[in-house]
User: What shape does this take?
Amino acid sequence: MPSVRIPGGKALAVAATLAVGFAASLPSTAAAQYFGRNKVQYETFKFRRLKTPHFDIYYYPAESLAAVDAARMAERWYDRHSKTLTDAFDRRSIILYADHADFEQTNVIGGFIDQSTGGVTEGLRSRVVLPFTGVYADDDHVIGHELTHVFQYDIAGKMKGGGMVALDRLPLWLIEGMAEYLSLGRYDPNTAMWLRDAALRNDLPTIKKLSTDPRYFPYRYGEALWAYIGGRWGDDVVQQLYRASLQSGFELGIRRTLGMSSDTLSAQWLQAIKDAYLPLMKDRQAPDSLGKRLLRPGSKYGDMDVSPALSPNGKYLAFLTTRGLLSIDLYVADAQTGKIVKKLTGPNTDQHFDAISFINSSGSWSPDGKQFAFVVFAGGKNEIDVFDVDRKDIIRRIKPKEGVSAITDVAWGPNDKMVFAGMSGGISDLYLYDLKSGNQEQLTHDRYAQIQPAWSPDGKTVAFVTDSGPLTNLDTLKYGPMHLALMDMDTRKISLVPVFPNAKSINPQYSPDGKSIYFVSDRGGYDDIYRINLESDEIYEVTKSATGVSGIEALSPALSVAKDEGRLAFSLFERGGYSLHTLDPDQAGGTLLGPNMDTTAIAGAMPPLHPVEVGEITQRVHDPVTGLPPAEQYATLPYNPKLSLEYLGSPGVGVGVGPYGTIAGGGVTAYFADQLSNNVIGVELGGAGDIQDFGGSVFYANLAHRWNWQVGLSHTVYPLLGADAFDTTLTDNNGNAVPTTVFEQRLIRQYYDAVNAATQYPFDLTKRLELGVSATHLSYGTQLFRLFVDKQGIPIGETQSNVSSGLPTWNYVSLTAAFVGDYSYYGFTSPIAGGRYRFEVDPSFGSLNMENVLVDYRRYFFMRPLTLAFRAIHLGRYGSDADNPELFPLYVGDPALVRGYDVNSINANECISSTRSSCPVFDRLIGSKMAVANVEFRIPVLGSDQFGLINFPYLATELSPFVDAGVAWTSTSTPNIEF
Assistant: This one.
């Protein structure tokens, strides 16, 4: 809306404003943001509802088969958790997505969802939202984890005295660690690897550090702490300690439940970790002595260099890394020296894809080593992009055919063939893709997991990872460990590779002669590299690490073998992160394991290694039958987008008494939405003063489709106060003249009544089109307050009346069209890399006829740790009312534009009157058009050890030397540039 000038004569205008913002009240996905990335609804999902005894399962037809299995998992977890936590509830909602790309489009969670997020429990309604992974064991774990949060919310909500507030105050390790322990039990080699790494470096966190220091991952360490508590005092204490922590905080909760302070518990827990793991690591290799470290250590605890992919000749290594600070990027390094030779992606380019897939994929080189294929997120799906190393550009984008919604990994084989692990309806299978013809063939057809394909050198066999076999029973939803399998590409016959039946075996890679397969297994509780001779079935231990050969997650790829010369590259867990190491071919033979090899997995258990009892939690996790409902057909119902209260802002009410009467104020906000949060209604009411000062807005937003749209009504009041005083003479009841001073206060209210409609179309994550229309009625109401005071200063009377403001009524229609892009990356206080822009035209018709034109372009060049920032802006009014004197002029001296020319910085001495202006110094800063340019260096003085000159992240501070330039002009004048 335009800013309309209100003439005031001698009156001093003081803004006492109430602003009820329509756009600001909308969810981020629908509201018109000035900048910001887009949460894109690439698809319209036709959800249905599966009704089980305790849950409403929301799914769409493509995932029907997996959704029924997930419903049975959920009911089994309800039975387990209700016994463990002695709690019960009636019904909750679980919203399922077929894959992670679909999950990232959900509206239930308003913000962006990272790839590493396996599921979310939304707090307002305790809704669980999660994607299928293609591995039933992982799906089951995530459902168990998130339903722990549902029970946590339910228990807190039933407590008297603010249980939900108390829940928000609990540390993350307590909440997330409890969910991990209840869904995994005592045995978790992944968490044990974190503990061994910390014990090896003598960097185990106390409970106090775990509660305050973000370096320590609360999921892993929190799980370990709960396992220690359950193992030492019994699992019954878990729900007791949780309830006590809600009532008194975790410090007092620990003391009341366990009979000791958190400091004492810390000391005993940390000592138990050292006692358990340090002896087990004596004969194992520390991370810095295992093979050859390829790259210099990262500068930050928790740095990641992962997903290695060696070129066939072993010369180059492609990998994913956080070394660029701002995102996970794809690099190529010299496999001998570790020198970075190419950075294939980065934040200063406006990518055609949204992100690189970094959890489950490591990419694959072409047989000739000239091209590299990797999996990305683009257009709401996964695709395979082919990067030409010499041309330094993506030369091909391979989108899966109909029926495949996601790709997790790819293997490039001979004869222009690729095999990729794909997902359809939440179930993973292997697919063959012909690069010449573009034909796609599904190789497997079942509910078992099939991931991580790898070609044999002769192209006759594909090795892969699966959970199929005698230890897995999908009728009872019992899952054996992941293991290796082979597919004959002529007959499509599958055979299992006889490695370790009770241990995870993943990430197969053929030796150059095709006679052996290297793989990663957690035999004994350690993740290490092994080699199996396919002719003799002999198994060799290649590494014996103290921590573990691992990717980001337990099933992430961590190993690569150069197909021609046999060099090994692998990611090793250390310093809370991952580093890349290599082994030359002559070091990769390994040590033969005898027939009576030790398979004891004690190193994968969490202390205490000898608990007081097996533990009810672990027993329940490993009991697939108890609580599992039969494989029956649940009732399937159509999805009804019924609205219910989602959020109620804390209402506020106040009453005040003053010389002009009683003043009341208050406000309330309420949001209503359906279960998927695709349809949102918001209502806001508020004001301060009398009834005429209250305003409000109501809107409806539809977020179900790529074209997000909204409509709304608003009534907004802007009170402005003017004051004056003058002398006059009044006549009293006796006819005597009384000299009087009149103190006059004029309250002018601007009323903006508007009808709004807006829509936006996001082209991708970084670019969108915004369109809008609004009809506005602007009117005025004026109240005149007069106080009469005699010469002795004694009030002798007062009046209050409604008078005419003398101001015109405005009726106009405004249109908006904007093209917005934002591929910037934020540091602690401001953008530090990438760029953003906004090009906008806003014509108005009716009482106001003009066009607002906005051009705003910004670029940020990251020169670690410094940033060079550049901005250019033009804002102008064009048309017949561009210079209408009733509109406030544009002011180029606003601190957000040109710094140093704030209104208060210009004093009266600088205002030398002329025949044309009372203050030319000020007037040259105003106009109906303006242009601004800014250049600044952003220097992070206080920040992290990786981004900041001084490592002090608790008070992030940035210095910004700058140069600003700006000019303002009107339709009848030309820009006057002065320095």
Remarks:
- The two ends are 33 Å apart (CA to CA).
- The longest strand covers residues 737-762.
- Residues 136-158 form the longest helix (23 residues).
- The chain has 13 helices and 53 strands.
